[in-house]
Structures are given as structure tokens and as C-alpha cells.
Amino acid sequence: MVWRLQLLHFKGSLAVQLPGHPTGSGYSTIEDYAASVEEYIRKEAVKEPVLIGHSMGGGIAITLALANFKLAGLVLVGTGARLRVHPALLSKVNENYEEASKLIATWSVSPSSDPVIAERIAQELLRMNSQVTYGDFMACDKFDRMNDVQKITCKTLIVVGEDDRMTPVKYSQYLHQKISGSKLVVIPGAGHSVMLEKHRMFNDAVGAFLDSL
Fold first, then answer.
1. Which end of the chain is more exposed for a tag (fewer CB within 10 A), N or C?
2. DSSP E strands: which ranges in 29-72?
3. How many whole angstroms from its chain centre is CA 153?
């Protein structure tokens, strides 16, 4: 669901379905998720991929890049070198998952975006077990690569929505400052789910990056 508009646009692209998303058990560390993505890439026999990660997926992508996994390029979307989660959000996931899903979905889009996008995000979250979502947030909360993100050497594009409330623009600016030679694209009128809210602008930015490799 997250990448459907990119899978249609970029022929031959692949989207990784993380463990527990939407069924089964998930993990509670970014490192475990990164290992599952690395296994998927090897299984699909993709050599030196351009890895695109959004939010927690950005943390996964950063982890693989810092582990010297061979990448042709890196695209970090609505993410950060650190991904702290507000304690109130963590507790709400356990207390009232339906309400938490609506809140997360609301925070995941710009106020100017089509409300249908937030509704679909909430529906997708409810397809997952609440404990998987809780584990994801715990994984994000523990993630911190602020002191070594500058070691990333592959070509990197950083994309963020101007109205992102989950991972504000300053998170992307920090990545841009630390990753040598990186390019930062801030997309107006978009929030955390920039690839769904402004998919044409997002696809154009990614397409230009791919053409530059």
C-alpha cells in the first residue's frame, strides 16, 4: 500500500513486505528488520540496489548503508538519524489501537492533503496486530545513528514533506548536513506520507536521482 504509486511508475521496482506487515510477528529493533531486508534482497538476487526507505524504513536503509551493504544509491524519505516516539503515542497503541491508528494516520499527512489518504493509512494500520505496531515504535524509539550517519558514502537523496509532523524537516536537514554530497528535496503541501500525497513530485525527484547515478 505504501509504495503502490511508485511500483506502477518505476518498472521493475520491488517493495519489501516486512515481517508482521500485515500478518505474523514483527520485530522490536531496526537491526532485526534490516537483516530481514538484506535477506530479501539476496533472495531476489538484486545486485547493488537503489534502496528507498520511509520513516522506520529509512532507519533500516541507514543501517544497511552503514553496514557497508553494497548500494547503487540511497533514498531516505521522511526519516531521521534518530526516531524518538512520544510516550503518549506508545501508550495509546496499547490502550486503544483503533484510536491510535486514527491519530497516527492524521499525523501522517499534511492538513491540505485529501482526507481519504489518512483514512486508508488508518485502515492499513488496523490490519496489523497492535503489538507489531508497538514493536515498530519501540524499534524507532531505540534507533540512534546521529553520531555515525556521516559515514554513509553512497549517493544519497533525502526527501521530506514540508508539513511532516512525524519526522519534521529539521531531521532531513540534519541528514543532508551529515551525508556528504547528498541532495535534499522538500516537497510543499505534503506531510509524512509524501510518496502518497504528492506522488508525481516525489516520483520526479526520485527519477531525476536515478538518472544521475
1. C
2. 50-54
3. 20
| Residue 84 within a domain | yes
Which residue is associated with the grid cell 524507532?
Answer: 140
Is 14 a domain residue? Answer: no
Which sign, positive or negative, has the C-alpha torsion 67, 183, 55, 24? Answer: negative
Q: Total domain count for the chain?
A: 1
Element (H, E) at 151: none
Please report how the helices 87-95 and 97-107 are oriented relative to each other, as an axis angle in degrees rounded to 10: 140
Q: Quick check: helix, strand or coil at residue 200?
A: helix
Neighbour-count burial of 135, counting CB atoms closer than 10 A to its CB (0-12 exposed, 13-18 middle, 19+ buried): buried
pTM: 0.96
DSSP 163: T
Q: What is the pLDDT of residues 170-199, one digit of tens each?
A: 999 999 999 999 999 999 999 999 999 999
pLDDT at residue 213, rounded to an integer: 96
The span from the CA of 41 to the CA of 1, in Å, is: 20
